[in-house]
């Protein structure tokens, strides 16, 4: 039983007028620890009991069985509960020591699948910081739902179809060289893409030529297909190298092209159900009853299918293949109208599982306050950025700990971790300005700060030569250790909140708070001094490191033992 349940149960015995669950929802955490750990406001009972809240609070406080608490006192209209620090710390430390990294594991998911549509870069374009958000947010959410007992399915829905391939084919035939593409595929293809787009702005016939080549590709033309396949294969090699750097893997790379032969079924179902209407020669589905003004455009007047047709086919395929409990689309906020349409069309088709689909949007990454754009060549490329972050981490490690074994591996874990953590600690709907100095700093609310707290604890445990025993009872009752205990106790709730809100930043902020609470404890407590509490203090260190490491793992960040 958690502390909230314990308090609610005790209040319910005295106040039968309120349901236990309602009491639990009313409990507040006082801003100041002097006011107790949790407080119950008596205002809600004033109407029922026809008494002033102050009197009610005094009355309840008197009747409550205080044996489970350090003390219970009424202050004005509030009943303040001070929890039994020794008892709770023994319980929490015992759980973490017994369960290790499995502490806070849950079985809410019962092994059901959750499909994540994530990353999804466009072929022949470099992997930029913009794609990083979708990749790391979805990967963290996948780890978080796995902690709840679900089975995540990571799908990289590659942008490997569309008119841009017509553009690329035209550009390659005009200016491309096989050797240059093989030597540096993405960079070379990007240059061709930027050049042809600039030309198309001046000369509309280029655009028409690109459309023609894409039509050939759709019709299975041999030359167009061979070039497309080659661009795709070369790009994937590059992407996978980057994914390896980031420590992210996928269960499926089925991109847009995979659904080329699956869209007719969608159009057939829509036709059978009488949902298609003609509008200026095009085929559309009216969605006004869902409050969506613009109809979903399924087929253009020239017979070409659109994004939404493809996404409908993908949704059907994923439901049949994975029978998902939820399908999560981690895609930029600019796509929100598209996903509203997608869910509404599926609903119209009679698929009620569309309610289990969620668009998890996120804000933009900017540089010096400016929006990034591939088309205009204004991008922050991920590969050189990672290399630079690792270099900076290495320089700081050299300064702090020049004799550190496996420096390169630690610098890689810190540099990559810094970029990921900075992204994930930002509330996903907010964007952030890309600032490598701030990311790789060991000070402030950063990944390296949390990693360093973990490494510092490992150093203390090595010095003390301490391994906790599952049979021993460790307990503490001082104020500073209590702050840490409360945070560790809250970890299961943190995981569920992060999952319910599709918000990894909740876990990242938790990790920062835990690292800060430990550093404060370390500054004020002589952990290694001989004292009756020495082993309990070391057990607290052990539990803190275990939970810090697990919180970082959920975010896809490593926790080195030495830094």
Overview of this protein structure:
The protein has 563 residues and is α/β, with parallel strands linked by helices. Among the domains are: 3-83, 2-Layer Sandwich (Gyrase A, domain 2), CATH 3.30.1360.70; 162-247, no CATH class; 382-554, Isoleucyl-tRNA Synthetase, Domain 1, CATH 1.10.730.10. 55% of the residues lie in helices and 10% in strands. The strands form four sheets. It has a four-stranded parallel sheet, with helices on both faces. Strands 1-3-2 form a three-stranded antiparallel sheet, covered by helices on one side. Strands 6-7-8 form a three-stranded antiparallel sheet. Helix 14 links the parallel strand 9 (326-330) and strand 10. Helix 6 (129-147) crosses helix 19, helix 9 crosses helix 10 and helix 10 (204-218) crosses helix 11. The radius of gyration is 28 Å and the shape is globular. The model has no long low-confidence stretch (mean pLDDT 94).
């Amino acid at each position: 039983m958690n502390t909230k349940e314990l308090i609610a149960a005790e209040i319910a015995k005295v106040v039968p007028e309120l349901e236990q669950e309602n009491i639990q929802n009313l409990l507040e955490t006082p801003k100041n620890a002097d006011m107790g750990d949790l407080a119950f406001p008596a205002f809600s009972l004033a109407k029922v009991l026809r008494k002033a809240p102050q009197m009610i609070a005094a009355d309840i406080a008197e009747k409550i069985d205080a044996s489970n608490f350090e003390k219970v006192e009424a202050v004005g209209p509030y009943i303040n509960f001070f929890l039994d620090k020794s008892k709770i710390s023994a319980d929490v430390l015992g759980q973490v020591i017994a369960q290790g990294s499995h502490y806070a594991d849950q079985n809410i998911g019962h092994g059901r699948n959750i499909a994540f549509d994530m990353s999804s870069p466009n072929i022949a374009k470099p992997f930029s910081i913009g794609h990083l958000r979708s990749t790391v947010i979805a990967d963290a959410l996948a780890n978080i739902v796995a902690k709840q007992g679900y089975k995540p399915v990571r799908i990289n829905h590659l942008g490997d179809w569309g008119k841009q391939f017509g553009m690329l084919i035209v550009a390659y035939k005009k200016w491309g060289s096989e050797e240059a593409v093989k030597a540096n595929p993405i960079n070379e293809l990007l240059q061709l893409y930027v050049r042809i787009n600039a030309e198309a702005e001046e000369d509309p016939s280029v655009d028409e030529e690109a459309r023609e080549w894409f039509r050939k590709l759709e019709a299975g033309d041999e030359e167009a297909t061979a070039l497309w396949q080659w661009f795709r294969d070369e790009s994937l090699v590059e992407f996978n190298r980057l994914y390896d750097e980031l420590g992210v893997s996928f269960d499926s790379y089925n991109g847009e092209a995979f659904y080329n032969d699956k869209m007719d079924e969608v159009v057939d179902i829509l036709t059978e159900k009488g949902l298609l209407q003609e509008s200026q020669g095009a085929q559309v589905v009216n969605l006004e009853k869902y409050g969506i003004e613009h109809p979903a455009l399924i087929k253009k007047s020239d017979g070409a299918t659109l994004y939404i047709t493809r996404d409908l086919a993908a949704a059907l395929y994923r439901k049949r293949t994975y029978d998902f409990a939820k399908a999560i689309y981690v895609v930029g906020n600019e796509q929100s109208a598209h996903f509203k349409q997608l869910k509404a069309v599926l609903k119209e088709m009679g698929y009620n599982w569309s309610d289990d689909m969620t668009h998890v949007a996120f804000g933009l990454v900017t540089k010096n306050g400016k929006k990034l754009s591939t088309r205009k060549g204004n991008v922050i490329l991920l590969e050189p950025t990672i290399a630079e972050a690792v270099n900076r981490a290495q320089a700081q490690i050299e300064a702090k700990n020049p004799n550190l074994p496996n420096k390169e591996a630690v610098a890689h874990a810190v540099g990559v971790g810094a970029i990921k953590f900075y992204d994930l600690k930002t509330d996903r709907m907010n964007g952030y300005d890309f600032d490598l100095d701030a990311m790789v700093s060991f000070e402030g609310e950063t990944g390296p700060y949390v990693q360093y707290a973990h490494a510092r604890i490992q150093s203390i445990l090595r010095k003390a030569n301490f391994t906790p025993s599952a049979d021993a009872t460790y307990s503490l009752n001082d104020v500073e250790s209590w702050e840490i205990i409360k945070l560790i106790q809250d970890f299961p709730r943190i995981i569920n909140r992060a999952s319910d809100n599709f918000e990894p930043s909740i876990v990242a902020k938790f990790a920062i708070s835990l690292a800060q609470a430990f550093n404060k404890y370390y500054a004020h407590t002589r952990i290694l001094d001989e004292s009756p509490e020495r082993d309990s203090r070391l057990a607290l260190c052990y539990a803190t490191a275990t939970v810090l490491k697990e919180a970082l793992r959920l975010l896809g960040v490593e926790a080195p033992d030495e830094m």
